[in-house]
Amino acid sequence: MVINLDNKGISSIYQKYNFFYIDLWGVVHNGIKLHTNAINTLSKFHEMNKQYVLLTNAPRPNTTVKKFLKNLGMQNKMLKKVYTSGEAALIFLNKKYKNKKFFHIGPPRDVDLFLKFKKNYTKNLNDADFILCTGLFEIYEKNLNYYKKILKNYKNKRMICTNPDLIVDRGNKREYCAGSIAKVFTEIGGKVIYFGKPYPEVYNQSNIKKYKKILVIGDNLNTDIKGANNLKYDSLLISNGIHKKEINQKGIKKVIKSYKSKINFIQRELKW
User: Fold this and answer.
1) What CATH number has the domain bearing residue 216?
2) What's the whole-model pTM score?
3) What average pLDDT values come out for the chain (272 residues) when binned by 10 residues?
């Protein structure tokens, strides 16, 4: 049974848990501004000495996302534990692919992910040992067929995808994410290594072995909730996020079933 927290708020259940994984985009902010009620909830967690991690499928290092959040107005005390899919990928790349040439698919703003091994970047797919996908090229941000065309002859090269999300809502604008390119690459026969929710490496950045009762809070059934299900954690789905339209049209039960997910709680927005 899914419990709706819209009336009672997360304050009605928080005592059951001693650790929280909280998604950023779609829960705490929308890419443009912070959500006031979510920030108030984080403040309450601090007051109650509840431990949490802000876990995001952002294809950038932890430090870059912390700066972004600070610029949005987030307090320093909330920035102590921010972990990204980009950082998880960076740890892997430094260990396994440090001296290999790569072709980058993504916007220029993501360049800080590979600054330490930028010398290995090549503009020629033929010369690349692997493909690093952080997003879409700005001039082809709506055209997935373009990527199918340029990648069809390079199925033998491994792709590293630093954000498994297929789509994101930046304010009221829906955009493709790196996961959509990885999906295209898989469909034409390519192999992809993913970093980010629901895959384990992004969670491994936080040491939570001592915590037994964990709640995952997120708006994406494919990533946040699937990750919670894989790890056997309880979950709270924020319904005004990426699945808002689906839920309004079909109802929460049908949507959960279509994604083969399990959730414990639902709330329109993260609210105390």
Assistant:
1) 3.40.50.1000
2) 0.94
3) 96 97 97 97 96 96 96 96 96 92 95 90 96 96 95 96 95 93 98 96 83 95 97 97 95 95 98 98
